[in-house]
Design the sequence.
């Protein structure tokens, strides 16, 4: 909400757009289409039907074309959802004045603070820390020795930035995140786990946003890198020596093991896992809950665990859905095979009767010969 009412005309001026309908309509808030009131601004996304928009009570709508079916004021913009975000950012977000430096903050030696910084109570800045102009550190933030945070950053409560870390400009880090914790590295020695010292660093480039309770481990040697514009959701684990490319999206509970790399504009769905030393190409997509243990080519889409090409995985899942039915069919076939094996066939019967026929034929041949005990009848000799 703004302190004084806006008008549709002022909103259109901010967006360099035109108004269809009243340009003097007061706007006091922004809301979703189904929750908006008569003095609220809302927007019509591409997937929303005209019927849904007609049922809204919004006083004005951001649309990508004039809709004759609607009687409310309409502001014509190329991308309504983007325009809505721009309006909220420009006109409805209260700008917090610089807090200054609290007396309850702890500062080490040789700490450098830029102009208009806000250092809230119970922030701890170790030796040789540098904080850029306009950056805000909320209560409970810890910044380790030799770390640098750029300009216009927002570091929310209880974030830990360990020693020797570099954070760029306009970075947002939400509560509870830890940057620069030790990588998970051990060696077996005499049956015990021996810790490998983690002496590398973490570099977070400009315009990155990290959600709540994200862990970004420092490199064993060298650096763990999150490149410009990447957005990371809550509860994501980035292991040592990982390199995340520009403009990536990593959704909640993603885990990326050591020394893996992603290209630019890669999207990784929630709860997906990427094994160590895996490379994911530019514009690739890893579906939610996928288990990736191989390299992925640029623009490839993979799903499942272990990850397969998405279409192959869809076919496999179609078969999985039919497994109970297939199991019953296999059982029926096994029963039929067993029955056929037990039942004698015609060839088996003929094979069994052949010896009997041979024996009978042999007896018949023996009975047709004259018996040696029967004397042949003599023919009487004729007298001369």
Sequence:
């Amino acid at each position: 909400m703004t302190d004084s009412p806006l008008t549709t005309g002022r909103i259109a001026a901010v967006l360099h757009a035109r108004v269809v309908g009243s340009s003097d309509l007061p706007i006091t808030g922004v809301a979703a289409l189904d929750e908006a009131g008569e003095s609220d601004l809302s927007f019509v996304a591409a997937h929303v039907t005209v019927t849904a928009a007609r049922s809204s009570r919004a006083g004005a709508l951001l649309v990508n074309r004039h809709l004759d079916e609607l009687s409310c004021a309409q502001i014509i913009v190329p991308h309504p959802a983007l325009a809505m975000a721009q309006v909220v950012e420009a006109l409805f977000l209260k700008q917090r004045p610089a807090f200054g430096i609290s007396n309850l903050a702890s500062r080490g030696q040789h700490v450098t603070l830029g102009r208009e910084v806000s250092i809230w109570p119970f922030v701890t800045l170790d030796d040789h820390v540098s904080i850029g102009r306009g950056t805000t550190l909320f209560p409970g933030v810890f910044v380790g020795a030799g770390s640098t945070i750029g300009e216009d950053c927002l570091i929310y409560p209880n974030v830990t930035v360990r020693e020797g870390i570099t954070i760029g400009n306009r970075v947002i880090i939400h509560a509870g995140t830890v940057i620069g914790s030790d990588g998970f590295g051990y060696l077996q020695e005499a049956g015990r786990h021996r810790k490998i010292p983690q002496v590398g660093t973490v570099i977070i480039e400009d315009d990155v946003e990290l959600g709540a309770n994200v862990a970004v481990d420092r490199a064993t040697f060298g650096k763990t890198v999150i490149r410009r514009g990447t957005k990371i959701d809550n509860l994501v684990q980035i292991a040592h020596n990982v390199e995340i490319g520009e403009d990536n999206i990593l959704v909640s509970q993603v885990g990326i093991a050591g020394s893996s790399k992603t290209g630019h504009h890669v999207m990784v769905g929630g709860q997906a896992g990427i094994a160590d030393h895996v490379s994911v190409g530019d514009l690739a997509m890893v579906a939610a809950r996928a288990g990736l243990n191989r390299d992925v080519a640029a623009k490839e889409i993979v799903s499942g665990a272990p990850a397969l090409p998405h279409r192959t995985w869809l076919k496999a899942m179609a078969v999985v859905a039919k497994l109970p039915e297939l199991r019953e069919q296999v059982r029926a076939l096994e029963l039929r095979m067993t029955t056929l094996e037990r039942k004698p066939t015609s060839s088996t019967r003929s094979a069994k009767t052949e010896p009997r026929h041979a024996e009978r034929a042999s007896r018949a041949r023996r009975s047709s010969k004259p018996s040696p005990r029967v004397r042949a009848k003599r023919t009487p000799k004729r007298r001369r």
